[in-house]
């Protein structure tokens, strides 16, 4: 997507705006535009790349705005009613909605993203016409207590959960177990026998959680600075809880380079997948990402764990940036180790 000065656009997080200026940024291996955009709320922002932009018409379709009292549907939480809007701490278009969900799902703050909120009336009409399949499975209509009961095999709590009850990180252990062990088809630990989960988790606590004050992952995410906190190696990015780079002595030059790398990687991957663009040089992109992870480690110091690939700690050895081998206990539990070898 190529933008021009004066063009009306839509940004997935900040809403409607107009491009007021374009500055070419140059970094080894990159050639990206920095767009100076005036948004509808009167604020100006510099946005690198175009991955988060779309036309105003597409924005109105993909990122709907609702009024209090509207009936809506969310693919995970089901049906509900909008009780308030425009609650984002970031000024901009109304992209966040406070919703009271049905079936015991409670009140939640939801960001309107593609595949997210839909008009309940419009969704029901599409289903009656056979236009789209149901977006919500049975699990998404369960209350939190019902979901816990289902995961614990209907009152018969497995021994691998009982073994960790009462520990200081029990809730984090359950999160890890659900996201990375017990989820069919998407588990990192696809070779791990659940009965051995407590032993693997205790190893992770000793090796990482007890040792480091903070765990970070260098990862390209649209409209992000490329650096995210994680709860444990290989864990999900803690969205909404960004890192204050200055707290760790990371200079502005590294921050800018991370942002450029993240936006560039997302742009070229999107162009290749959707617009028939040239195949990106993924090896070069990964080498650049690893080098930047090394810069983060250099300034963050020994008390901070940094990874680029899951469970491959980024270290400096004899003046070079290297990834430590995946620990043997972790490697034998995951087929992803084969792809990383």
Architecture overview:
With 341 residues, the protein is α+β, with helices and mostly antiparallel strands. It has 4 domains: 8-60, Thrombin, subunit H, CATH 2.40.10; 64-140, Beta Barrel (Thrombin, subunit H), CATH 2.40.10.170; 152-208, no CATH class; 212-340, no CATH class. Helix content is 30%, strand content 25%. The protein is built from 10 helices and 15 strands. The strands form 3 sheets. It has a 5-stranded antiparallel β-sheet with strand order 4-3-2-1-5. The chain has a 5-stranded antiparallel β-sheet with strand order 9-8-7-6-10. A hairpin with a 2-residue loop joins strand 13 (304-309) and strand 14. Helix 7 packs antiparallel against helix 8 (282-300). The radius of gyration is 22 Å and the shape is globular.
Taking pLDDT < 50 over at least 5 consecutive residues as the criterion, the unreliable ranges are 88-94, 131-155
Overall pLDDT score:
75
Cα-based radius of gyration, to the nearest Å: 22 Å
Number of domains as seen in the coordinates: 4
Distance between the termini: 36 Å
Characterize the biggest β-sheet.
5 strands, antiparallel
Secondary structure: helix percent: 25-40%
Strand content: 15-25%
**Elements, N to C (H/E):** EEEEEHEEEEEHHHHHEEHHEEEHH
Q: Given the helix and strand composition, which structural class is it?
A: alpha+beta
Number of helices, counting only DSSP H or I runs of 4 residues or more: 10
How is the largest sheet built, in terms of strand order?
4-3-2-1-5
From the spread of the alpha carbons, the general shape counts as globular
Write down how many β-strands occur, each being a DSSP E stretch of 2 or more residues. Answer: 15
């Amino acid at each position: 997507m190529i933008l021009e000065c004066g063009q009306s656009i839509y940004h997935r997080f900040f809403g409607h705006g107009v491009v007021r200026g374009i500055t070419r940024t140059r970094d080894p291996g990159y050639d990206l535009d920095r767009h100076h955009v005036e948004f509808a709320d009167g604020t100006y922002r510099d946005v690198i790349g175009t991955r988060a932009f779309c036309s105003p018409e597409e924005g109105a379709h993909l990122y709907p705005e609702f009024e209090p009292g509207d009936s809506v549907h969310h693919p995970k939480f089901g049906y509900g009613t909008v009780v308030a809007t425009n609650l984002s701490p970031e000024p901009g278009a109304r992209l966040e909605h406070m919703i009271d969900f049905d079936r015991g799902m409670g009140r939640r703050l939801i960001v309107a993203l593609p595949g997210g909120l839909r008009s309940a009336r419009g969704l029901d009409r599409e289903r009656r016409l056979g236009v789209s399949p149901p977006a919500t499975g049975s699990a998404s209509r369960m209350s939190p207590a019902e979901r816990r009961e289902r995961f614990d095999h209907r009152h018969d709590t497995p021994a691998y959960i009982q073994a960790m009850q009462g520990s200081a990180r029990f809730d984090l252990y359950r999160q890890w177990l659900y996201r990375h062990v017990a989820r069919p088809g998407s588990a990192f630990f696809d070779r791990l026998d659940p009965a051995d989960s407590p032993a693997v988790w205790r190893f992770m606590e000793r090796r990482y959680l007890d040792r480091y004050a903070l765990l970070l992952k260098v990862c390209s995410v649209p409209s992000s600075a490329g650096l995210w906190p994680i709860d444990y190696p290989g864990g999900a990015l803690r969205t909404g809880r960004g890192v204050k780079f200055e707290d760790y002595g990371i200079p502005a030059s590294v921050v800018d380079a991370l942002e450029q790398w993240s936006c560039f990687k997302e742009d070229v991957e999107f162009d290749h997948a959707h617009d028939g663009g040239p195949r990106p040089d993924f090896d070069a992109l990964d080498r650049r990402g690893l080098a930047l992870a090394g810069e983060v480690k250099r300034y963050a110091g020994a008390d901070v764990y940094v990874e680029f690939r899951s469970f491959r700690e980024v270290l400096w050895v004899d003046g070079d940036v290297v990834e430590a081998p995946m620990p043997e206990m972790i490697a034998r539990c995951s087929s992803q180790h084969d792809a990383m070898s």
